[in-house]
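Below: protein 1.
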Amino acid sequence: MRKWIGSVVAIDESARAGALPSAFRYASALAVITSLALGAPGCGGAPAEPGDSGTEPMDGAPSDGAADDTGVADDGDAMTVDDGSVAPDAAPTIDSGPEPCSTPGAIEMVACGMCGTNTRFCDAAGVWTYGACSGETGVCVPGSTGNVACGNCGAQAARCTATCDWMATGTCTGEGVCAPGTRARDSAGCPVSQTREVLCSSSCIYDPVGACTDASCPTAGALETVACGMCGHQDRFCTSAAVWEYGPCGGEGGCAPGTLGAVSCGMCGTQMTRCLDTCTFMPFGACTGEGVCTPGATQRTAMGCPAGQTHVVQCDAGCGYTVELSPCTASRPVDVILLLETTGSSNADVTAALPVFRTRLIAPLLALMDVQVGVAYFGEFPNTPYGSAGDRPFVGGIEPGTSASAIDTALAARPAFMGNDAPDAAVEGLSSLVGGALAATSLPMTCSAGRAAGGC
């Protein structure tokens, strides 16, 4: 008699059969549960529509060098800005009009800006529409020229390579007299035979930071340690000319006592700080000016879409949801839960099938946008002699998510139920999974706030 690990049940029509891999030799049991509340915290999203997988040929590649297509402008001159970076002058952009495409509904990722990517969508009119450029990993636009910082506040001619990095081509000119942060002693501005501590500024010039003191010393060969800088210390040696010679300042703190500053906090916010007598900053007051999200986070939202549609947006470096990852569609997010029988010898079959689950089922599902995967288990319905202590008809494993490692951990920690194989108990397991009353000794699925599916 053939044993079944479970069955496949589609609860919502938005879970299209074309988005799921075929059944296995030991048929995996799936319950596809879709959250009815779009945008609910912790919920997943819809699989890609047909044609969105990128497997069909796409026409209408972006024009080379067009800033409105890929974000890469033609060669141009560049100017140096205050922070030492360069801002190339973009060449005039030539608008060639709408860019046609042959497969409405197709989505492509194309290069843009400083080695970033852009999502373009073939709309119903057969024209490519573009989202915002995101994920820029470079520092310049390929082909541009400019100046880069070098040495002690100097400048050097450079050109931007295909990897969006500056490559120096000239000599370093216009340098200052010191490297920023360097400490020394100088007699400028002091009475005869006196010196004071100076600190090299961000402009590569020395600024006085200490009081003038006698530079002479009474005992040649004397060595002592004195305070310096921001709670640091340095050795000074009395030379044969009876003049103190100072070593480097070490062990400094991060600030000058009594000064105020600010540090980053929360989601791109700022918080005031005070520098203590230990030369360390202590935050005080509230975190202000925060954004609405953590950079890199994504969410599905209806904001900015026609009624009844949603899209996926990503949090930018400024902690705002401004980067569009998918166009507005009427598709719904989908949660997929693996419901596995782990009673008796079926549990051994599950162990044998795990590699296939990972490569043929879990990985392809997680590759789909707005699809999340969870795990639950069922066993023999509690009837004598089964249902004794330690035996449960249903156990919730892990709520739907996008972490393959978390799913692997849940599968490795799955329970092993007592009793014979329990194909009839699959009905009880499915009932528990979709929110039905739990039988005695069952353990429910624990889910985050906002989920309405998955037996929560």
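Below: protein 2.
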Amino acid sequence: MRPLNIVHLMHDEKFIDGFIHLMGDIPNCRNIYFLFSSQNELRYVKSPAVILVRRPEDIIKKLAEFESIDGILIHFFDEWKARALILLKKKYPYSKVIWFAWGGDFYGKLNYSVYQEESVKLLKNKRFMSNYLRLYFKKVSLNFWKNRWKEVSLIDYCSTIVPNEYNLISSLKGFRAKQLHLTYFDSHSYSIVQKYLNNINLKNSVLIGNSANITNNHLDIFRQIYSQKHKIEGKIIVPLSYAGVSWYKDAVIDRGNLLFGEHFYPLTSFLSIDDYYRLISSCGVAIFNHDRQQALGNSNVILYLGLRLYLSENSPVYRYYKDIGLHVFSLQSDFEKFGFERLKIEQIEENRDIVGKFIWNQARASFQITEMLDLIKSAK
């Protein structure tokens, strides 16, 4: 029996190498990995198995020797992958299509509010609005496919980052995909985090947000912290070196300096993952004020290190974490009560056990991949 031929349309992210490693352990499966890039060098993906292409048409040329493709796995659905999917389905009409939906590739198509009060005020401010509109329309012109999205009807199975997002994504026009449960196992992060597990008694700083994306709603959480007058002993660390635009970073830095003075520590330079986790391990509390699913990789690290994690009740991540029994806390309901109080040792240990069972579990991730391939195989 010939091996399954699986085409992967990849995205340059930190956990992709770990996924490629997992796929390599699956028998009777031939994987072809494509990643769109106009550069010869990627930021995160290091695997030599990845084939860089500049155009969707290049994929078809690279697959000239393959008479059949059994599965097409899309890791983050964007314009390039949508165009490639049309070409692949035209040549291989019986291939099954699986979409690993990350969040940034579908929330913009939903009637879903991601900006809180202070963020909305900032966007409406005339001083910023011209910059925002210019960037917005540039993005629309580059991503015109979002206005049509007919390719979503070609997808057979969909796995969202947290399972309860499937109910959101299923409202997309033309969406017919069945739910699939898949997990990226980030072995690199797991191995690095082990070095910083003994810092429990040293943590007195606070981490706020994961990037300079306005969906972090930084100004809203700044207002909440300042108005409730919780005593801050260490730094307020705010990562701003990833994503976002300069005017928003400036607004966050200006407000942070105004409210917190010497305690405010904006992180504007890119750190290695090792240095970043070391910095996180100096914190006792982390606050992620996203109303959508975002920063799950950071959240898993935070919980495993032993920080108290506050999330917005509106986030699917908050609901998912509560469902699997993790000790996470609501910004709306719990912050006034606990403030910057650290987790109890038994809560830290329980969180580590649960993350190890449901999220950082290589055997579980491998089993889910095997189940997915069995679905593809049964359709042959």
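Residues 137-148 have pLDDT under 50 and may be disordered.
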